[in-house]
Amino acid sequence: MLQAVALSCTRGERRLFSNLSVTLRPGTLLAVVGENGSGKTSLLRMFCSLLPPEQGSILWQGQDIRELKELYCAQLTYIGHLNGIKDDLTPLENLTVAASLSGDDSSGLLAQVALEAVGLKRAIHALPTKVLSQGQKRRVALARLWLSTRPLWLLDEPFTSLDATATSLVTQRLQSHLQHGGMAVVVTHQEVALPSDAVQRLRLTE
User: Fold this and answer.
1) Which residues pair with 204 in a beta bridge?
2) pLDDT per residue over 96-148, tens digit each?
3) How far apart are CA 73 and CA 159, in angstroms?
4) pLDDT tens digits for 155-194?
5) What pTM does this model have?
6) Are 92 and 120 in contact (CB under 8 A)?
7) β 199-204/55-60 pair status
8) Can you tell me the distance from the alpha carbon of 21 to that of 111, in angstroms, rounded to the nearest whole number?
9) What is the DSSP letter of 37?
10) Phi then psi dihedrals of residue 197, to 5 deg
11) Which of 31, 113, 131, 193 has its CA 20 to 30 A from that of 170?
12) What is the Cα–Cα distance from 39 to 60, expressed in whole angstroms?
């Protein structure tokens, strides 16, 4: 279980949010929505332990993540708004390296299966990523979800640059993750097409 307790965040002289509390239970996705500048990415970075809250705390299984440190980070998979891939590496190399760095299974066979699961044909696997479209690059980044066995996924605008087919594939993967007791926090401008009882919505306002 992931809990935010009375969180506050300020950027410069502007208060983005204050006294924010939410609880995320296994099998549930938290969709964080709001206008640009409302603090969505800042909140996600707090959940990633990349940004300390100005006030309040974040609890994982009842313990403060600042005390858990690496033990907490080992429970999550984070994919930011930027793809975090190297243009000179192939999709297969990018995925293998990313999986290895995060402690997931990085075998070439599983990486190939993951890339095919996001709709990237095998002929693309050996091309330098710089020749791919933005949508294909996003699929490479999101293929990490097919290798991740961690219970908490933190995703910043995962559907950006994806067409309807790729959006459906990622949504199906999210649903499978939740059905197996996983949790996800998703910053998004789009509706997440999952059953209503599996989705919580948190709207941040400026």
Assistant:
1) 34
2) 988 888 777 767 788 899 999 999 988 888 899 999 999 999 999 999 999 99
3) 24
4) 999 998 899 999 999 999 999 999 999 999 999 988 888 9
5) 0.92
6) no
7) unpaired
8) 37
9) T
10) -75, -5
11) 131
12) 21
